[in-house]
Specification:
CATH class of the largest domain: Alpha Beta
Order of helices and strands: EEHHHEEEHHEHHEHH
Distance between the termini: 159 Å
Helix content: over 70%
Number of helices: 9
CATH topology of the largest domain: Trna Endonuclease, Chain: A, domain 1
Number of domains: 4
Largest sheet: 5 strands, mixed
Strand content: 5-15%
CATH architecture of the largest domain: 3-Layer(aba) Sandwich
Strand order of the largest sheet: 3-4-5-6-7
Number of strands: 7
Length: 412
């Protein structure tokens, strides 16, 4: 800030800046004039360029003054433009605020109308939903009654099934009916696994003992017996044992029954020269078979030693499938002679076919030769016809002049 003649001027005021620039320019002019005078004294030759520079400098000073006036006018124009822009901005903002307020009022009214419509629609949907729920409730009650009827019917079936289970227990409680049950199951498995002519049911051996099933295997190993056994009482005692003493007694009964079955099968159904060197004991229960292999492995080893192999329905089916493969192989060996005979005849037929093919090939070769010669003759005949057509008689047979017919000369 500076004070001149009682007035305060700021250095940021454009007028002050222009004035300072003018003063600086004047000071620069004075300095240059002083330097010019000194230079004129030193060298007269440089006076003229210096005068020109002073003239240019004067023009620049004049232009600077004009620029100052233009700057002052531009600043005034800028201030006026800024004031007008502020007025226009205020008017625009007021107009936009009015438009926004009007738009907000319209939106609020529209939202209120939509809310009223939505409330009305919701009430309608609630009425329809309540009506539909009542219908669905009635339908569900009807279905529930039907399901209760089905449950009553299933309960009747369960009661009937329990009676059937009791009947099955009655059947299994009798040794004779239990044996028949095992035999029926064995018959079903054997009939599904083997051809009908490869086994016999209730077959009587030479020692008078009747086997449940005899598989007619070729030698070796020879016919093998399958006998059905069902130690149900010891197994049930083993399952129902509650104390350690009862468990030991049931295990003893189980071992005794199985040893007796193994001994009976070994003595009755293994006959030298008539049956195979072993037999199968069929247990019609997978549970008894699993219990045997889980807790009575010594009995299984005793069966191996006595050449009695214990099988369940599952393992019996696998064993019978193996026997089926053996039977198939044996029957193929029985037919080996017929197969060799047929192969010999087939070989002769193939040789005869080869001879006939060779003859046919010779015929084809002769026919091809004949066709080639016919083609050559046709080519020769064609060439001769062409020569005759062109009157080339001298070229018909150059190697045989006697074939050329001489032309007679006319009499003069």
């Amino acid at each position: 800030m500076i004070q001149i003649a009682g007035q305060t001027y700021s250095f940021s005021d454009p007028v002050v800046l222009v004035a300072l620039v003018g003063i600086g320019a004047l000071a620069l002019i004075l300095i240059l004039l002083f330097l010019g005078l000194r230079a004129a004294n030193r060298s007269a030759q440089m006076a003229e360029p210096l005068a020109q520079q002073l003239a240019h400098l004067g023009q620049h000073v004049q232009q600077l003054g004009q620029g100052q006036e233009q700057l002052r006018g531009g600043l005034q124009h800028v201030s006026e433009t800024q004031a007008n822009a502020q007025v226009q901005m205020i008017q625009t903002v007021e107009a936009r605020l009015g438009a926004v307020q009007q738009h907000m009022n319209d939106r609020l009214a529209d939202n209120a109308l939509r809310a009223q419509r939505a409330m009305t629609e919701m009430q309608e949907r609630m009425k329809e939903s309540l009506h539909g729920s009542s219908k669905q409730t009635a339908t569900s009650l009807t279905q529930l009654q039907e399901r209760l009827k089905m449950i009553d019917k299933a309960q009747d079936n369960i009661t009937k099934l329990s009676g059937d289970v009791l009947s099955l227990q009655d059947i299994l409680s009798n040794k004779q009916t239990r044996g028949a049950f095992g035999e029926i199951q064995l018959n079903d498995i054997v009939s599904k696994a083997l051809p009908a002519d490869s086994y016999s049911l209730q077959h009587t051996l030479t020692n008078g003992k009747r086997a449940d099933c005899l598989i007619h295997l070729p030698n070796p190993p020879g016919p093998i017996v399958i006998d059905s056994k069902f130690p149900l009482e010891p197994y049930e005692a083993l399952r129902n044992a509650e104390t350690q003493g009862q468990l030991q007694e049931a295990a003893r009964m189980m071992k005794t029954a199985l040893r007796a079955h193994i001994k009976a099968i070994s003595e009755k159904y293994i006959i030298d020269g008539e049956t195979a060197d072993g037999a199968l004991m069929f247990l019609p229960s997978e549970a008894v078979y699993a219990e045997l292999h889980a807790n009575f492995s010594d009995i299984v080893r005793e069966g191996f030693a006595a050449r009695v192999w214990i099988v369940s329905p599952t393992t019996c089916m696998a064993t019978l499938n193996t026997m089926r493969a053996i039977l198939k192989d044996a029957r193929m060996r029985e037919q080996a002679g017929a197969i060799r005979k047929e192969l010999g005849m087939l070989h002769k037929d193939v040789e005869r076919l080869g001879d006939r093919v060779a003859n046919l090939d010779r015929h084809f070769g002769q026919a091809a030769k004949d066709i080639s010669e016919i083609k050559i003759s046709a080519d020769k005949a064609g060439r001769r016809a062409q020569r005759l057509d062109n009157f080339d008689f001298e070229e018909l047979a150059p190697d045989d002049p006697s074939n050329v017919v001489p032309l007679s000369k006319p009499d003069h």
